[in-house]
């Protein structure tokens, strides 16, 4: 989109969870000539939004979000940031159009899994008449590319950990459990669950400190989008906090997928990785699911 071209496709809303990603997207939208509406989710810690049109809504208040879309003439929406608690059925405030989707919603909530819930949220937002777009459509410069970000690259031991970690992360994703896996010495030592990447890395650091993981072998964190994941929501993000926690866990580096992972604070991330002697690497992955879909 060219600067000043907002009227051609309608105003953008950023539904902001926790973390800094929503702020990066808002800044990118501003650079593109847009004036995004920020809808900060209640209960999620976000940055200061000075200078932006800001509203608040609970994660399940679709009736309230629909009213905001109407009042601010929103036609596009991007989901960004972390959500610590998914909406429970009794917390959802429906619209009339929402009621037609009740069987789908109940099935989704019973099925569980973050990807299933995100699919439900995307479908419900689009039922409100808005087009849901991905973070990478607003800020394509955040996407990881193939190759190392800084000066460090994996050695042969790390290459084996990367191979094992990729296999584990893909299997974990197929089960709609998480996106991250840690491999040390050619074996998987941790898988990401609902607690998130940082908590998983804390577990690895604790296992390292207690001697349950060898101090001689470093290991690798692999973060991948789930094979069935809708790329409009929850692409894996690697930032300074991820790097810091991976360093505290004694890991040699972090791997994300080229074109399907986000790198936050790229220049600062590169500096920090170089200083820590760690690699941050984008890899291209052959996905059988994508080939079957075509």
Automatic annotation (TrEMBL):
Classification via InterPro entries: LpxI, LpxI_C, LpxI_C_sf, LpxI_N
Top-rank taxon: Bacteria
Gene3D superfamilies (alphabetical): 3.40.140.80, 3.40.50.20
Residues annotated as domain LpxI C-terminal: 146-280
Residue ranges occupied by any LpxI N-terminal domain in the UniProt entry: 11-142
Protein name in UniProt: DUF1009 family protein
Any one Pfam family match given in the protein's UniProt record, by short name: LpxI_C
């Amino acid at each position: 989109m060219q600067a000043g071209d907002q009227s051609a496709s309608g105003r953008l809303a950023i539904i902001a969870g926790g973390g800094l990603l929503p702020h990066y997207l808002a800044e990118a939208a501003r650079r593109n000539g847009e004036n995004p509406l920020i809808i900060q989710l209640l209960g999620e810690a976000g940055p200061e939004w000075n200078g932006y049109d800001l509203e608040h809504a609970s994660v399940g208040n679709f009736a309230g979000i629909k009213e905001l879309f109407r009042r601010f003439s929103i036609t596009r929406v991007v989901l960004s940031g972390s959500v610590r608690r998914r909406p429970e059925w009794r917390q959802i405030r429906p619209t009339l159009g929402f009621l037609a989707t009740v069987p789908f919603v109940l099935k989704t909530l019973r099925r569980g899994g973050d990807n299933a819930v995100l699919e439900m949220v995307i479908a419900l937002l689009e039922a409100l008449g808005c087009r849901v777009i991905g973070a990478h459509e607003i800020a394509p410069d955040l996407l990881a590319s193939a190759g190392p970000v800084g000066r460090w690259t994996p050695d042969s031991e790390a290459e084996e950990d990367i191979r094992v970690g990729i296999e584990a992360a893909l299997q974990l994703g197929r089960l709609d459990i998480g996106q991250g896996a840690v491999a040390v010495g050619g074996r998987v030592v941790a898988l990401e669950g609902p607690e998130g990447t940082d908590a998983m890395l804390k577990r690895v650091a604790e296992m390292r400190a207690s001697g349950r993981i060898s101090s001689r072998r470093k290991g690798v964190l692999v973060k991948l989008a789930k094979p069935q994941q809708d790329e409009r929501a929850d692409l894996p993000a690697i930032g300074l906090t991820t790097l810091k926690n991976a360093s505290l866990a004694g890991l040699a580096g972090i791997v994300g997928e080229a074109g399907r992972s986000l790198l936050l604070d790229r220049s600062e991330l590169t500096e920090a990785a170089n200083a820590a002697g760690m690699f941050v690497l984008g890899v291209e992955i052959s996905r059988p699911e994508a080939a079957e879909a075509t």
